[in-house]
Each structure stands twice: as C-alpha cells, then as structure tokens.
Design a protein that fits this description.
343 residues, mainly alpha, globular
Length: 343
C-alpha cells in the first residue's frame, strides 16, 4: 500500500497496493528509484524479500480492518504513520542520512505527504468501517488505471496507444464486475467504496506532482521518504484531535495491528522496496504489486471470514490484466532506452 519519492526520468503511470505503480512508486504511496551506486548484495535472496514485501502489503488491508475495531480511522492513520516514521528515522540514523534541506523542497514534500500518505491512508481506514478488506484491496488495484488516465493529460511524455487505451477500458470493466454493476450494485456500500476508490486516485495525483516538482532535488530517496512521512504524521496529528477523542484504552489486537501496519507496511516495506530497486531494478521490483490484491483477498477470507462472491476475484483479475496493458508501453520504452535509464 503502501510513502515517498525521487522521481526518475522514465515514464510511467502508476500503484498502492495495486497493479504496478510507476517504476519509482511503491505500493505504499512511496516512490523509489535506483540509487546512483549499487550497494553490496544482501545475504537474503531478493526473491525472499520480494515475497515478504508482497505479504506485508497484501496483509495491510486486513491490519487496517483490525485496527478500526479498536480505534477511530484517523487514530489508525496516525499510529501507522508514526510507527513508519520511527522505522525510517532509525534507518536514516544507521545510514547517516540527513533530512532534505530547503523550504521549497519541504513545501513540495508536504503536498506529496498529503496525497501519498495522509489522505489515502485516512480514506482507506474510513472505508473499511463500511466495506470488507477484500474490496478495499481490490479498489486499491485501480490506482494505475487512474494514473494512466491522469498522465495522458498531465504528462506530455505519456502518449495514448491502442494497447494502453484498451487496458484502461478493460480495467474499468473489471471494476464494474467487482461492484456487480449488472445487478444494480445490490448490497454495495457506496460511501465506503467511493472512499476506497478516491484513495486509489490520490496516489497517482501525488506521483505526478512529485515527478513535476522533486526531480533532481539532490536528496536521497530514503531522506525524501523520511521527510515525507514526518510531514504526513504532522498533518494527521493536527487533524486527529479535531475529529476524535482520546481512546479509552489500548486494546491489544487493534494496537498490535496498527503498530505492525506502520512498522512493517509503511516502514520496513519501504526499505525492502528500496533494496529491491537497487538490486534488481524498478521494473522487476514493481511487479510485487500484482500479488497484493490476491493476498489481500485471501487474507480477508481466510482470517476475517469475509464473504467472497464469484465476481470479486474475476473482476480483480480483469483489473490486473487492464493495469498490465496500461504499463506495457512504458516497459517497452524503458527497454528501448536502456542507455538512458538502467534497470
């Protein structure tokens, strides 16, 4: 699902826990690019870390659902961002990274934090008060579809092709399948579903903004991500007291869920994604997002006992197929211009 950015010069459209994000984007609202130098290869094989990342982000929607059983949605978001920020602060201290400098950079990071963290995290938490975690995870998979549609207007380098337009149409056909359009959306909670879809739309808005404003900032991805999460935490910390009261207690399972959501899904996952991009490149690393809605659906059914009708998994597969088509031209472009951008 997934906190921030150093945009690359390559073209792409967009994810969170969904079909592929931009090559520099992560499934948790972060953006990651390959670093100038390759670090020493970790002892743990990249395939194991890839699988761990898919599981962490896939289970994020389940953790949100459990967290909202004990806390208000804004409180879940605040705990999530705070835990994630602590993890990245420790990582920055270990690597001796410094936060970005310059008021202009921090101003852009504040906007990125809103669209990539504070807004979508809060919307998903509110949405899961009314809809199953499985539906939230699948709605999140529409993010690259929104991203492609927006990029055709906002990014001059992203030109429409028949394949990409077909992918966009196929993806939204999948959305209608998931929502049961042929039966009049019977039993669908429109408010919760709309919030989940708006959360998915928020990610590509943030990514496009970042690509336009933070390219060539001179700061590392880890430093920008740490700064963005800090600002997202501050934004939610200001809002939460206005809409919620202090919790009566700290119930064990919801508390553990919120801490795990932040420390693992918003902290550790960013570091895993950062390492994968450095080792195997953004094109391979972004493939993790194809597994997220599948894992989110399986977790919701197996652990939470959520009901699943045939149209939900079928529609999800159609969404992912459409998302894959929308990304295919960008991948081809990268392969053709490998001299300018290394994966």
């Amino acid at each position: 699902m997934s906190a921030t950015v150093t945009p690359s010069a390559t073209s792409s459209t967009g994810s969170a826990a969904g079909a592929p994000p931009p090559a520099e984007g992560s499934a948790d609202g972060t953006a990651v690019t390959s670093a100038p130098g390759r670090a020493a290869r970790p002892a743990l094989d990249w395939r194991i870390r890839f699988g761990a990342l898919a599981l962490i982000w896939g289970f994020s929607f389940l953790l949100i659902k459990v967290g909202t059983e004990g806390y208000a949605p804004f409180q879940v978001t605040l705990g999530r961002l705070l835990s994630g920020t602590v993890v990245l602060a420790v990582a920055m201290a270990v690597r001796r990274e410094r936060l970005p400098r310059g008021a202009r950079t921090w101003g852009h990071l504040a906007v990125a934090a809103f669209f990539l963290n504070a807004l979508p995290f809060s919307l998903f938490a509110h949405a899961e008060l009314a809809i199953p975690s499985t539906l939230a995870g699948i709605c999140n998979a529409t993010s690259p579809l929104w991203g492609m549609a927006l990029s055709l207007v906002a990014l001059s380098e992203d030109r429409p092709t028949r394949r990409r337009v077909a992918g966009l149409g196929l993806g939204f056909l999948g959305v209608l399948t998931v929502l049961g359009a042929w039966q009049g959306f019977s039993g669908l909670d429109f408010g919760g579903t709309a919030m989940a879809l708006l959360a998915s739309l928020s990610y590509p808005i943030g990514w496009i903004y970042v690509r336009r404003t933070l390219a060539g900032s001179g700061s590392s991805t880890l430093a920008l991500t740490g700064g963005q999460l800090f600002l997202g935490t501050a934004q939610i910390a200001l809002v939460t007291p206005l809409f919620t009261s202090a919790p009566d207690g700290f119930p064990l399972l919801p508390t553990l869920a919120v801490v795990a959501l932040g420390a693992l899904g918003t902290g550790l996952a960013v570091l895993l994604q950062y390492g994968l991009v450095e080792e195997v490149g953004p094109t391979t690393a972004q493939m993790v997002t194809y597994f997220i809605p599948v894992i989110a659906t399986a977790a919701g059914v197996a652990v939470l006992g959520e009901q699943l009708s045939w149209n939900t998994p079928v529609g999800a597969l159609v969404i992912l197929a459409g998302a894959a088509l929308t990304q295919s031209r960008a991948r081809g472009g990268r392969a053709a211009s490998s001299g300018a951008s290394s994966d």
